[in-house]
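User:
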Amino acid sequence: MTASSAPILLEDLTWTEFADRAPAVPYWLLVTGSTEQHGPHLPLGADTLVVERLAHLASARHGAVILGSVRTGVLHAFQDWPGSQRVPASVLTEQVAAMARTVVPYSNRLLVLNGHDENHEPLLLAARSLVEDHGTDVVVVEWAQLVSDVIREVSDSTSESHGGEGLTSVFLHWYPERVRTDRVAVGTQPSGDLTRDDLHVSKRAHHVVRFSPADVPSGVLGDPRAATAEKGKAITEALVDRVDALVKERGWL
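Assistant: Predicted structure:
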């Protein structure tokens, strides 16, 4: 498949265009994110927007087809904020598995780009179902985990939990018009060490927590004040390169 200069979305194709293109698609992309608060300076759809841009770049580079975006995810920690939307884990698992069945008659290779950490376990259940029932070669990627080392290297802050320096830097590079720069401010600092859900903690125990607006008034865990577009460029370039390496490692190209 020759790479396209533009992303290819399933929803943009006619059924005849799909039928003509599908047999030569090297792999398929599926985006999952969330609609939840990311502080007063980032939009509710931040998680989805990051992996949508990543999917568009991968599609344009490789000729992969984007099956669609799941914009409402599993939400526990920040469910009490205005504007939040959530679905049960079982609903996300079934939706992703159903969308992915489109690929089975063709290359049967699926890359799930996930922007929201609480989606991860339901996505793995969907992936196992696809492997068991259809033999799909499926990889689930949470973008921040794929480049956590780069986020730590470029950051001046020492915490990246929610709406912090790394994510804000990515937005300043990819979506500067969506950042409310006048609302960027230090957030609450996460507590704990081994139980801290933070990209700057290399080894941790998983502590299930439901935050309240009283505990985290701005919704931010971390400090986005040091975020810059230059740092976002370094993070996103590494992210695109690692997705490229990943699909080549799987032998999909």
